[in-house]
Design brief:
Layout lengths: L3 E3 L4 H7 L4 E6 L4 H16 L5 E6 L4 H6 L7 E6 L2 E7 L4 H6 L3
Parallel strand pairs: 1-3, 2-3
Antiparallel strand pairs: 2-4, 4-5
Length: 103
C-alpha cells in the first residue's frame, strides 16, 4: 500500500468516504522533520493497509487545506475517523505516536 497524496480537490472525496481511520501528514518538501517521519508513515501504510489509510498533504500546494485545519507548523499529522477530525500531533514523532492517532 502506498501513501495517498491529497489536494484541495480530492481531500473530502477520499477522507470523508473512507470507512477506515485516515492519518493525514501535512508536510512540505523543504521540511527536514517532515522527511524524518516518512519511513514510519510508509511502514504504517504497508503494515496496516486494511486498518488505516495513510495520506499526505503538501502545505505549499494545498494552502486551503492547511488553513482549514489550522496547520501552523509542520509536520502536523491529523487523524480522521468517520470523516471527522479525531486527533492531532505536531512535530517529528515516533511510529508509536503516529499509531496512537488511530487507537
Amino acid at each position: 500500500m502506498t501513501i495517498t497524496q491529497l489536494t484541495d480537490n480530492n481531500f473530502k472525496e477520499i477522507v470523508k468516504a473512507s470507512e477506515i481511520p485516515v492519518i493525514v501528514d501535512f508536510y512540505a518538501d523543504w521540511c527536514g522533520p517532515c522527511k524524518r517521519i516518512v519511513p514510519a508513515l510508509e511502514e504504517i501504510a504497508s503494515e496496516k493497509a486494511d486498518e488505516v489509510l495513510v495520506c499526505k498533504v503538501d502545505v505549499d500546494q494545498s494552502q486551503g487545506l492547511a488553513n482549514a485545519f489550522q496547520v501552523m507548523s509542520i509536520p502536523n499529522v491529523i487523524s480522521f475517523k468517520n470523516g471527522e477530525l479525531y486527533k492531532r500531533v505536531v512535530g517529528a514523532v515516533s511510529k508509536a505516536d503516529l499509531l496512537a492517532l488511530v487507537e
